[in-house]
């Protein structure tokens, strides 16, 4: 990076050309990215593919100025530029929507939008700001209440806010990191369709990290594929098949494992929910009198547009939110989701955003894997004396069995890729052969297809062992592939239910849309 100071961006309305040239990034002796190159042409959508750990995030973090490349160049309109911070990137019209949300939870939508600006304004004329923000929101493809605190938004709404911030900042090069992970297929097509229109109009270029081949083929012009930090392939999307892209990603053709469901399992009620009510953080109703029964050896899928009560429902079942009315029973016994009750009834959970909800980020992989059992034999004596050798031995076995990619057992779990964090949580929650009830909420959020296949297979294997599974997901295709029964939640109520074999996709879509 031979340019020490920022040069003025070209005074044109359209996006500039972005080139990443022979970029290498090393962390000590570890090479995360090695001589990778790509070109984002003005007015195009460029997809960046690769498994977890392939170097995608490292590349875009170098472009955004979070990392300084060990070698290589970032070129704007074929001129080498030094980008040392996101503010530098913004100077050249580059903005990014991150996989993990960056808004301030305690602040409102309006405050977050204003906060996202790179100006030095010390006094804010909120009357003028609100007038401009209302006009901006009115022209956006999705509506979010400007006065709503971000902490009260559902995951899908938070993701839409992240995209809104970049549209508000008028970024001309937009980097999207798994932009549709928490969106329904209809929402995903709406958002990507809107951005695609901006691209076709010559106002925007997009570099999109995604693992959804359908999105690549529907919305991208070109694709760059990384494998183990190196360039594995590039080309025009119209010239590449899904099989060819998958072969580049994995080094071999993708052969998705198919796990057959065992038929004729005994149907014994495990989880019973009757008349359940609970509230949102703002005190408004979130779940309104739902009834649910999950039996041994079946997967019940809960479908719905983000923000319709499914997050609050899962939090009640996981003991993170109190119900205001109704009853919960597990194995016919009243259940309040305490740790003791979860152990007694063998209830396990795969929560949404596992690094935030299921891990202690600064603790090691071994310690996080042991969170369920650290105070029980053989990992502890008398409930308090930890047997560290037993903890490490158990963790080592789970790391091998669940193919968790980690430098060591002592690595802080926050240093792992998203897929490997989820594998670690999965190993902890499914390692016991005594699991009776598994509650999974968006378990494949932002993961590549290899990790998705692994998690799907593990869930179906648990079901085949007789585990009762409640799968809450905003990915309708995931539910249709895995569930035995599907239930649609809308505005906190169950509005559709069917066996998968009898499911009516048109009715499901209408129910999810509130019709």
Report on this model:
- There is one protein chain.
- The strands form five sheets. A six-stranded mixed beta sheet has the order 6-7-8-3-9-10, sandwiched between helices. It has a six-stranded mixed beta sheet with strand order 16-19-20-13-21-22, with helices on both faces. Strands 2-1-4-5 form a four-stranded antiparallel beta sheet, with helices on one face.
- A hairpin with a 2-residue loop joins strand 1 and strand 2.
- The protein contains 17 helices and 22 strands.
- The N and C termini lie far apart (55 Å).
- It has 515 residues and is α/β, with parallel strands linked by helices.
- 32% of the residues lie in helices and 25% in strands.
- The chain has helices spanning 56-64, 86-91, 109-115, 126-138, 155-168, 185-200, 213-219, 242-250, 310-317, 339-345, 354-357, 365-369, 388-401, 418-430, 449-464, 476-482, 505-512, and strands at 18-27, 30-40, 45-49, 71-76, 79-81, 94-97, 173-177, 205-209, 222-227, 230-236, 269-279, 285-295, 299-303, 325-330, 333-334, 347-350, 380-381, 385-386, 437-441, 468-472, 485-490, 493-499.
- The model is unreliable at 253-257 (pLDDT under 50).
- It has two domains: 18-106 and 172-250, P-loop containing nucleotide triphosphate hydrolases (Rossmann fold), CATH 3.40.50.300; 269-512, 3-Layer(aba) Sandwich (Rossmann fold).
């Amino acid at each position: 990076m031979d340019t020490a100071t920022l040069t003025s961006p070209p005074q044109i309305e359209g996006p500039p050309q972005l080139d990443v040239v022979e970029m290498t990034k090393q962390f000590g002796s570890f090479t995360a990215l090695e001589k990778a190159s790509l070109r984002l042409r003005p007015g195009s959508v460029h997809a960046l593919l690769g498994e977890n750990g392939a170097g995608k995030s490292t590349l875009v973090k170098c472009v955004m100025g979070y990392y300084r490349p060990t070698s290589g160049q970032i070129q704007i309109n074929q001129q080498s530029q030094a980008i040392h911070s996101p503010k530098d990137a913004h100077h050249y019209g580059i903005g990014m929507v991150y996989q993990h949300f960056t808004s301030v939870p305690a602040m409102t939508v309006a405050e977050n939008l204003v906060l996202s600006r790179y100006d030095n304004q010390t006094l804010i004329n909120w009357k003028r700001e609100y007038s401009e923000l209302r006009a901006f929101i009115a022209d956006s493809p999705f509506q979010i209440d400007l006065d709503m605190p971000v902490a009260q938004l559902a995951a899908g709404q938070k993701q839409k806010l992240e995209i809104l911030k970049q549209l508000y900042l008028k970024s001309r090069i937009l980097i999207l990191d798994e932009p549709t992970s928490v969106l329904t297929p209809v929402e995903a097509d709406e958002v990507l369709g809107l951005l695609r229109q901006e691209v076709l109009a010559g106002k925007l270029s997009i570099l999109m990290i995604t693992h959804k081949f359908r999105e690549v083929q529907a919305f991208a012009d070109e694709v760059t594929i990384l494998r183990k930090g190196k360039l594995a392939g590039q080309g025009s999307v119209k010239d590449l098949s899904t099989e060819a892209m998958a072969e580049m990603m994995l080094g071999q053709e993708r052969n998705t494992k198919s796990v057959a469901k065992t038929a004729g399992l005994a149907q014994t009620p495990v989880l019973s929910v009757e008349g359940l009510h609970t509230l949102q953080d703002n005190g408004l109703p979130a779940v309104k009198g739902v009834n649910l029964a999950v039996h041994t050896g079946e997967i019940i899928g809960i479908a719905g547009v983000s923000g319709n009560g499914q997050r609050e429902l899962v939090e009640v079942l996981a003991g993170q939110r109190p119900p205001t009315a109704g009853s919960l029973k597990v194995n016919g016994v009243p259940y309040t989701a305490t740790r003791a009750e979860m152990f007694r009834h063998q209830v396990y959970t795969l929560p949404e955003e596992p690094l935030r909800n299921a891990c202690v980020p600064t603790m090691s992989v071994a310690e996080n894997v042991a969170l369920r059992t650290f105070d029980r034999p053989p990992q502890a004596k008398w409930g308090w004396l930890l047997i560290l050798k037993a903890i490490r031995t158990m963790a080592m076995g789970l790391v091998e069995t669940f193919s968790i990619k980690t430098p060591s057992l002592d690595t802080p779990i926050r240093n792992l890729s998203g897929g490997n964090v989820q594998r670690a949580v999965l190993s902890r929650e499914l390692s016991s052969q005594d699991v009776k009830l598994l509650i999974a909420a968006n378990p494949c959020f932002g993961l590549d297809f290899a990790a998705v296949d692994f998690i799907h297979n593990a869930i179906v294997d648990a079901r085949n062992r007789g585990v009762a599974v409640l799968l809450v997901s905003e990915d309708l295709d995931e539910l249709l592939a895995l569930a035995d029964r599907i239930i649609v939640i809308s505005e906190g109520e169950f509005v559709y239910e069917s066996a998968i074999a009898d499911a009516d996709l048109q009715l499901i879509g209408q129910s999810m849309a509130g019709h």
